[in-house]
Every structure is written in structure tokens, then in C-alpha cells.
């Protein structure tokens, strides 16, 4: 991503930040029939910590250290916590991660391997966003929340890479999972940078996909609202796409503006659709993606069924995180064959196509 250093707010830093970005864009014809369009996959799971969050951390963490803060923090119990901790420790800085009291042990293990200070907080986890900003004002710590401007500036490099790969054309659609709205804000910022520079004539349509269990952006888009209304606990359900189950997206207004500015759409998909799409990503495309990322395929398929995406259009799906951190989340039934060594050739011959 540092090929775009001139468009970022810091000079190229040291540490794991140098490994961020540069993820592949892969033509994936095996997913065309499912999606109802010509599919390209921008595999952010190949980032240093397995998620697009590394683009934001690569800019935000070194930037906050350069401004004098020795302790970096974040509010997350998933990819952003892992990424922030990794980037901080690679620059020999302390990191504090605020997580909910009931965080699953598996996620805590992924975060803890970078040895940040992990603080489990009782109470309403959604209120921690505001609390974190207050802590940054009162204590010698800079808590980098999901929509920190430096994070968003890092995210725009994904858009630069996509458009550079397509040049001199641009893709028709870019589909992103949507939670806080920060990634959509960054991609939109990148689009506007390229438009101002005269490098693209027509922007891709941004399509955001949410889990139906928590979809304030979809509801606001369908209602014609410019700002999403936070969902109450009674309106929020459980979902396998836990990374995007945000009932009160802090960058929601910007995400909605980005969609409307690019003539895009926002759509929600169910857990059953997400499970199916996770399997299709793997079996038809060869990609292991987390459930939140699989929403992109399910969402584009739904939009194509509604006639909002045509079969000859180019669609970039952006799996924002690897599925290899999500043990058991794919709902895959494991079937094996037990064979004696001396029967192996005969049994294998019966299993293979004639």
C-alpha cells in the first residue's frame, strides 16, 4: 500500500505496517453463476493479520506514535483488536484492548498472542465507543476507534489497488460487508481522490451488505434516511457474522452518503444465506472467508435477482477477513472415508470419476 505513500498522512513506517496492502485481485469465474455477474475477488484475508484492518492500523498506529502517544488502544473483540495489537508491538509500543466481559475464548486467544493489555469491560459494550474517546482526552493513551480518520485514510488504498488492476477501465460494482461504515468511508474517499485527479471518469457503484440480525444501514437506506437509527437490544439478533453485527454504526451517515453518491445499494442477508455463501466461496471459488465476508456474495446474488446488477457487469467482492480464524463458524459437515492401507487403491478407484 505504500506505493500510494504520497496520498497518506505519514511517511512509510517501520514494522509490520510495511507488509500491509498489496492483496491480490483474482478473477473467479466459478462464482459467476452464484453472483449473477462477472466476479473478481479482492482477498483481504492475505493481510498480515488476516483482515483489511491492517490497512487502517498501518497508518493509524504509526501516526499516533509519531504524534507523541506511547500507548495505543482500541475497542474491539475481533479483527481490529488483533490488527492494532500486532502493529503496536511491531513498533515496540504498548497496546490496550477493551473487549466485552463475555468475549469467546477463541477470539481472546487470537488477540492475546500479541500480548496487549486486555481489559474485559462489564456493561453495555456499545457505549464503549464514547467511553474510549473520553479516555483519549483524559489519559496518555490514544484509543483508535473504528472511524479514526487515519484508519479511514489507510482503507482507501484498497480502492486504489482495485482501480489500478482494472485500469484503464473501472469495475461496475464493489461489494463490501458493512458494520461501522469505516471501510465504506475509506473506499469512498479513495474514489473521490481518483475523481479529483482525473484518473477515473465513472465511479464504481458501492454495494454494502449487512446481516439481517443487525442492519441499521439497510433500514435507513430503504427509508431514504441520511443517518441510521440505532437499533435497540430487542431489535438486534444473534448472527454468525459477528464482525458486522453493529447496531449503532458510528460512520453510518458517511456510508449511506457513499452509497448514494455512487448510485449503489445496501442490502441485508440472513444467516442461512451467509452459511451458503461461505460454502460457495470455498467450493466454487477456493476462498476460505469469514462469515461476515461471505455476505458480499450473498448480497450481490440478491441484488442480481432484483435486476440491480447485470450478468455482464464486473463485480469486485471484498472478503475483509480470512475464515481460518473462524473455527466451526462455517457450518460445514465433515465427511471422511476410512480405508485400510491394503485396500487404498481399490477404494480410491471406486471413488474417482470413471
From TrEMBL:
One of its GO terms (biological process) is isoleucine biosynthetic process. Its cofactor is pyridoxal 5'-phosphate. SUPFAM superfamilies: Tryptophan synthase beta subunit-like PLP-dependent enzymes. Residues 223-252, 322-341 are annotated as: Disordered. Pfam families: PALP. CDD domains: Thr-synth_1. Keywords: Lyase, Pyridoxal phosphate. Residues 17-321 form the Tryptophan synthase beta chain-like PALP domain. GO terms for molecular function: L-serine ammonia-lyase activity; threonine deaminase activity. PANTHER family: L-THREONINE DEHYDRATASE CATABOLIC TDCB, THREONINE DEHYDRATASE, MITOCHONDRIAL-RELATED. This is Threonine synthase.
